[in-house]
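Notebook, p. 212. Picked up where the previous page left off. The plan for this session was modest: take the two constructs that came back from the sequencing core last week, fold each one, and keep the raw output in the notebook itself so nobody has to go hunting through shared drives later. Recording the first one now, exactly as returned: residue sequence, then the structure token string.
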Amino acid sequence: MVRNTFVALTEVPESLADAARGMGMNEHQVFYQLKLPLALPVMIEGVRITTIQAIGLTAVAALIGAGGFGGFIFQGLGQAAMDLVLLGALPTIALALLADALLTMLAASLKPTPATA
């Protein structure tokens, strides 16, 4: 997530920042009105990746007694009961897919549209 934020902010073309400064913007205005809006979709992608990874790791957290859906998965694996495994795995997958779809739509809605002449 930190890497995505860094890359997003550093990849804004310097020519755009120079143009903004030429129009009289100070550094705070350049950041908040130019760089941040242009970098936001890439930053949201970092949040999306981190969120999906965290959802997937919640199943593994059952190994240290955290419970949740991972408890069903490991109990089912221990008893060779596929229904318990599915009871834990399917909601985890559904939650990850839902988070992925929502954050992808958010990132797509924040992408700047090209100006028409």
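Okay, moving on. Second construct, recorded in the same format:
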Amino acid sequence: MEHPRITLITGGARSGKSSYALTLAGAYPPGRRYFVATAEARDAEFADRIERHRRDRGDGFVTVEEPVALARALDEIDDRAAIVVIDCLTLWIANLMERALDDDPILQRVDGLIAAARRARFHTVMVSGEVGSAIVPENPLARRFRDLLGWANQRIAQNAERAILMVAGCPLILK
């Protein structure tokens, strides 16, 4: 079976999204696996999380740290990779919001990411949180974040050959 060009893995916190993405990437040869990390260590606890993720993925990945310019990062990887895991779009959207971008420019970057993944010669696995299943946030900033991430996830899922929802460590194949 041919590997899909774009896979979206979404789910709630601690649902197993990242672990499952690494499992999918394990089918590809070491040295041709890339990991694009969007997290920025802003405090000690988050630095510990980042370090734990590095240990979990081991030495089989080339890591690219890019909190904002994901389309450019994919273009720069070019033909060196067989698979690229982007972890995670949830932080990426927050990073873009933090840089005072309005909704339309953020969604244009989502479209740019999709275009970069479609022209890439490698398989792209995008990990993203599912934050729209809970109550509507009281805070306008939290509502905006929830909406932007939901729209981003929809756009990516519509353009992905495979979409997976993780629940309690179990993958539910949506398409």
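Notes on construct two before I forget. The mean pLDDT is 92.
Flagging for discussion at group meeting.
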